[in-house]
Every structure is written in C-alpha cells, then in structure tokens.
Amino acid sequence: MQQEHGSFHHKIVIFIQQYSNQRHRLRPVPHPVPLSRLTDSFLDGTSSVYLEELQRAWEADPNSVDESWDNFFRNFVGQATTSPGISGQTIQESMRLLLLVRAYQVMGHMKAKLDPLGLEQREIPDDLDPALYGFTDADLDREFFVGVWRMSGFLSENRPVQTLRAILTRLEQAYCGSIGYEYMHIADREKCNWLRDKIETPTPMQYNRQRQVVILDRLIWSTQFENFLATKWTAAKRFGLEGGETLIPGMKEMFDRAADRGVESIVIGMSHRGRLNVLANVVRKPLRQIFSEFSGGTKPVEEVGLYTGTGDVKYHLGTSYDRPTRGGKRIHLSLVANPSHLEAVDPVVVGKTRAKQYYSNDVDRTKNMGVLIHGDGSFAGQGVVYETLHLSALPNYTTGGTIHIVVNNQVAFTTDPRSGRSSQYCTDVAKALNAPIFHVNGDDMEAVVHVCELAAEWRQTFHSDVVVDIVCYRRFGHNEIDEPSFTQPKMYEVIRNHPSALEIYQKQLLESGQVTKEDIDKIQNKVNSILNEEYNASKDYAPRKRDWLSAYWLGFKSPEQISRVRNTGVKPEILKNVGKAITTLPDNFKPHRAVKRIFDNRAQMIETGEGIDWALGEALAFATLLVEGNHVRLSGQDVERGTFSHRHAVLHDQETGEKYCPLDHVIMNQNEEMYTISNSSLSEFGVLGFELGYSMENPNALVMWEAQFGDFANGAQVIFDQFLSSGEAKWLRQTGLVILLPHGYDGQGPEHSSARLERFLQMSDDNPYVIPEMDPTLRKQIQECNWQVVNVTTPANYFHVLRRQIHREFRKPLIVMSPKNLLRHKDCKSNLSEFDDVQGHPGFDKQGTRFKRLIKDQNDHSDLEEGIRRLILCSGKVYYELDEQRNKVNGKDIAICRVEQLFPFPYDLIRRELKRYPNAEIVWCQEEPMNMGAYYYIVPRLSTAMKSLDRGTMDDIKYVGRAPSASTATGFLEVHHREHREILQKSMQPEPINYPC
After folding, report:
1. Can you give the residue ranges of the Transketolase-like pyrimidine-binding domain (predicted)?
2. Would you say domain 215-514 falls under CATH 3.30.420.40?
3. Which of 2, 311, 755, 912 has the most other CB atoms within 10 Å of its CB?
C-alpha cells in the first residue's frame, strides 16, 4: 500500500525521526518486534522508518504485526469512539507523551531534590520540559490514553485514561523527589522492568507507626552516639558521622530486609568516616570497649597477658557479631579492618565474601553478601573501585552482587567535587558495570530506608551490584579538630544553621501525629542512660579473651605460643597415585600436540621417579594437599597456562575448545571448586586484595596469587604495605596467602627482571643485630616474624615450602621469588624421593622431610673443610650459573651455598656453614644491582652471625653483583650479557675480592 508524504502517520515518522536525529545516531530495529521493544528504544534513536512500515502492515493485515502493536492501534481507534474527552487525540500525541515519560525515566534524577543543603546548582534538562514535546498548559487537564504503556511499568494501577497533569505529578513524585534513580543504562529488560514497577507503582512510600518508631530509635542512637563522643572527648579524632547519621538506620533496615530474603552473613568494608558509629550501632562492638579505646586504648600485653600486636587507631579496627534482626532472625556481621587507604579494603571484602560462600556451600550466593561503604571522593578517584567492580561478574570472583553505599558528604578532605571528578556523579563509574544507582537526600530518613531496602531486594533478586548514594554533608571538618571554613566557607555557613536529620524526622513525625514528644523523650533518655552506663563501665574495662581469629581458626597459635614443626613429606604410594591422576588425560580429549608431549613427559617422570620439573613439583604439592582435604586456589593473570607456558593446569581440546583440568580429578567425587585455578582480569591491586580476603576466612586452604611478572606486583603495593606485611601486627589477623613473583635477570629489560626483592626484605621485621632462639624445640622465629621471603631453587624445595604453609599451627604470608628460566633448566630437577617421607632418602634429615631453608654445597663436603678458600652465599637461579662457572674453572676450593629462605634469616644454618669453612673468604653474590636484591638485608645479619663465631665483621663480607643503579636492569641485551659475565668471573677469580661492602 502506498503511503502519501502528507499522510497523518508519515508525520509521526518524521517527528520521531527528527527528534531522534537531534540526540543520537539511528540504529536498525529487528522485525517483527513488540511495542515495548520499540518504545524503549525511541530515545536511543531507533530508526522510525520501521514505525511507518509497521503501520502500513497493520492497515493491510492486523495479524501481520506483533499482538502488542495490534492492540495499540485498535485501542486508539476504540478510545476515539468511546471516550469523547480524547476523541481528538492522535497517535502522534501519544508518542510524544511516551517520549516525555521516557525522559523522566532516563533523566528525572537530574531534577531530584538530592542536596540537603540546597547548594547544588544543577541545570534541569530540556528533555523534562513538556513544551519540548508540544504540550502547553492548555493540555494539562486533557485526558490521554496510556493503558498500553502498562507493559513498561508506568502507571500500572490499571487506569488507561489519565490527564496530563496527573501523569506529570506521578512522574515528579516517582523520579524527582528525594530519590534520583539511574537505571535506564541497564540493557537487561527484566531488570529495568522490575525497577520501573518498584519506582512507578503508586504505593505510598510510607511506614506505619511501629516501623517509624524503630527507625526513629535507630536514628537517635546514631545521633546521640556522636554527640556523646563529642562531649566526652572534645579533642579526639573520630571522623564522626554528623551530617550523615541516616546511614545507620538505613544500613540496619537494609540488613533486616536482606535477612528476610535469605542472607545469613554480611561482610562489611568501609573507611574511617562514620566507622565508630557503624561499629557501635550496626555491628554492635561493645560500647565500653570503644570508650576504653578513647580513654587510653587496649592494655599492653604485659598487663593483660594477651597478644595485642602493635594495634591501630580505633577507626581502623574491625570486629564481628551475630546480630538479631527486626524480623526475628540472626545475621552474622563482620567489619573488616582497614588502613587509611580508603578503598583498598574493597577487594578484600569481596574476596572474604567469596570464601564464605565456598565454605558454607552457598552455591546460589544468596546467604553471604558483601557491603562496601565508600566516600564520594574516593569512589570517583581511586582506581581500585573499578578493579573491584570489574570482578563482579567474573566466574571465579563473583559474589552474587555487592551493595555499595556512598556516604556522599559532597567534599573530600578539602576538595570540592568540581576538582575531584570529571563526571556528574561520584558514582558514574558503576554505570560501566550496569549497576543501578539510587541517589537519595540524606536528610530524608524514610527515603534513605526505602532505597536501602530496595538495594537489598535487588541484590537478592538479580545477584548483581547496586549503588546507594546518600547525598549528605559533613557537619565538621575532615576530622573534628579541622577547620572546614578555610576551604568551604559558604557551605559551612549553611551547615551551621542547618537542622540535623534527627531534628527534621522528629518534626515530621510530630506533625503527622505518629509520635508524641513523650515518645521521643523516652527513647532519648534510654539511649543516654545506656551510653553513660557503658562509659562508667569502660573505666575498668579489660579484654576478657583474645579478639583473635574466627571459628575456623580455633586452635591456631599466636606469636607468643610455640608451634611444633611438622614434616611435609608424603608417602611414596600417595605421590605415585596422585602423580598418575594429574598426568593422565581422558581418552576422548584432544590436547595440543606440544601439551600432549609435556604430559607424556610428566607421566614418565612419575613412573621413573626422576627429573621432576618445577611445574610437576607444584602440581604434586597441590594434589597432595587436595588428597588431605585442603582447598587450593590459585589466581592471577594467565595462571592457567602459566606466563611462561609451563604450568598447563587447564587444557583446551583442540577440536571442541572444551577445558579439562587434571587437578579437578585427584579424588573421587571431588568438589568442582576444591581446586580453583583461574586467569584473572588484568588487575594486580584488585585481584591480590581479593585473594588476601579469601585467604583470611579459613586457614585450611592454600590460596595463591601469581604476578604475570614479579615486576608488576608494584601495581598492588598498597596491599603489600598496608595489609600483608602488617595486618597481623595491627589487627591480629593471620593469613597464609602465597605470592608468586617471577624474578630473574634474563636480559628482558627493566620491567621483566626484578620482583623488587629488596622491598619485601625491607618490610621484614626482625632485628639484624640479635640472633633469636634457634633451638628447634624452642624456636618461634617464623611465628614472631611478619611474613616469609624465599627464593627457591629446586622443585622439591618448592613442593615443601608450599605444603609447609598448611602443615603447621599458624599462618604467615609467603613471598616466593619464583623462577623463569629454571622452569625448564636442565639441572633444576628433583627426584621423587625428595618429596617423600622415607628415612634415608635425599630429602630426609634428622628432623624429617621438610623445606630446606639453606641448601649446602652440592659437593660431598665434610663437617670441616679447611681447604676451601671462598664461601659464596647466593639465592635463586644465579646459583646454577655460578656452579656452571665453577666447573669451567675447576674451582674445587670454592663452596657455594644457597640461602633458600631469606627472611626469617637462617642464622643456625649460616653458622653451620661458617664453621664448616673456617678459612673461607665470605662473598655475597647476586644478579641484582647493589642497591637492590638481598644485599643490604643480608649484610648486617650475616655479619651478626660471623661476629658470634669470631669470623670477622661487616667489612669482611665481599659483594659481587651489579653496580648501584636507578633502573632495575639494563634494556640492552649485550650489556646484560657483559654484566653477567663479569659477575661470574669476579666470583671465581683466584685472588681475594678487593672491595668490602
């Protein structure tokens, strides 16, 4: 059927096309398509030519179009004849009205009253002006047919005919009140429709008197707690919540709703702002303990007889509690300790949540939930926020959705938003992950509660992230002794005269008649009475038990308790059995030819018991731990294959692309997550933080993170500095996390050589001038250190150091300078007998089969070798090159010992070797520049050991290695080779090395 240019429906097409072209590029629409699909895409610039074609088709044959369009056209025809009030209405007007509705859904938040101070000057988009769509005041009381729109959620109370005034009123109420919703960026139609129904369905957002009294009680607790601290400790920093007190009732209502929807445990992460209030009123840390910390802090160890570590400021501490909910359930809350690096705790919380889901068999991820409380400046400004969000849907990192709450006080330390971010909202980064964002005026108590409950429902319904942005203010400065008017004079002039959220809510309830003045006074008197009672009790408060570790950690030792040393060897028959399991592939699996050769070679290694390489040694460690019932998890960039194509833990069928992981089949009916190896996103900070949080939940797991190259670990430096190196000392929280950092000088340039060994050793906490107790039955050296740093040179020793992480009564982080060229080095091999627990085999000594902290010279030297002129101490792969050079020059008067464990320093074994070679010149040899590597760490400790034997002083330790350098390594291969030759030649030269340290 021909369509004339002047026809009515052609004008509709022209109107929509012109409107769309002003805003977006046109996109094609599939055919046929329901009305809801097309109308949802009008504002996205969908080609409206489709509408013209559709109208033609319907006129020719109503059955040729989707039923929704047939109903649409029929409804207009019917309404025109049965409703005189809209008899002149056209389809064009209806479409224009639809565009106006959609504009409110997309941009209504720009008109919402979000700023409690009224200072924010936002330009209201023209799209929200009815005049843009051709409507005038004369149209306000005209009736329009809107029944067909109920499929998109708008005005779903089954009133198909409404006036324009009623429609606009409802739109203003839904989208432009105290809440601004951002959700139209979400591509999933089900999610959008769910939110539309929640937002647009006109059920009054009101709570009955009973609920309002509960909310009021919680708001009074939040407010009075801050007032009490301000009165008792006027000069103390507490980073109070004044101006954002509605956070506390909002969180508590959120948790109540989450519990009603099946959540049993919540892991919380937040920075300092409002933390004490959350600790006291949400997580319920004893008030007397908080007040005691203000009055002088936790008693020293000698007074209470408990291990307290170094401690931390009170607004960094964490705790946990089983809290009853309003619905009569109990929910476990844990607030993770954190440093001042505001958002660094985010991935730690997510990782801990994922671990809780694993250990509680929470397959649907509905019982354990993470909640992160952010600041507005840090949410927008710190990259780890995006790194954490980016993990949200990755299979081995997802937690089924994290709820993000932004305490948006509209100013960071002293920085205004216009200087702190480039986007309209601080939360815009979350839109990249299709998370809905609920902006809410922090002075509207019931609106805050509503969005917090809505966030909990979203998370439990769609198992994805959601953001609540509480727009509030900060009544005082960054801390209570800071003067904010220096930098925000106008804002603080308003704040000085602005009523608190409690005053506003009390007035609202009194005016509505829901509560009386007596009701309010009764609650306030109760709260003040309890605060004073707890304050008086705090004066005599002392810890009654160690706030040490969670239930999974019961029985584990603190640094002041001696832990027995355990063997790590495995019975030969178990090694053979697991070795066969992890080298056998299914008959119908088609691996790559090169991978098939690798697995055939591994099977041969197991069969003969000889030539075990690095990758197989690692796999045997994993497999034997799995057999013993432990969880093993390894993640990082490219860990499935291995950066250096050595691990091949996950194989790919070359015909179907299907994956196969041999370590998933070590035991019968093995849980599919018992062994988890996963390539991560290209993130160091976020993923390492995730694995740290994961490792903190349960000690019976070997949790590892591997850097693509060790050099890249500096992208996660905050996790090393603030969590891993000092977490136990500050927060009494142990972790056995293993860090694998490929390290070694192979001529690959400055960013592919050094894992910055010196940084980890510099953060190590022993005294270089005191030899600790080294008797094996009394030794607590590792327990008293903050972590372990090793540079291992044999597959067997790597096997044992990994198993040692599990087979002891405490946990310590392990930093492994892992190899690159040793992965295939002809001499870096071990025999299977070095892995077993049979007496008389090479790995067995007086104490059993264990990790060797120092490997003595491979030659069969006696306990006393007076003819050795030089003792070279080294660490890592340079040993093999030194040994090869020694053979070339026939250096039989040179001994080479490998220090496998650098920290804690093996004083006992070093002294043993010094006694063995009483006349030897002492040399430390390393690949790294003098100002890097282990040199500056080794020298004072080696000197202490020498002095204890009258073997000389620090000046008697000779250095062989690269010269001091600003760069970790040269980028010129020829220079690298020259430097390397000089190191080897200097180490073996016949005359004494003529320069001291």
Report:
1. 612-825
2. no
3. 755
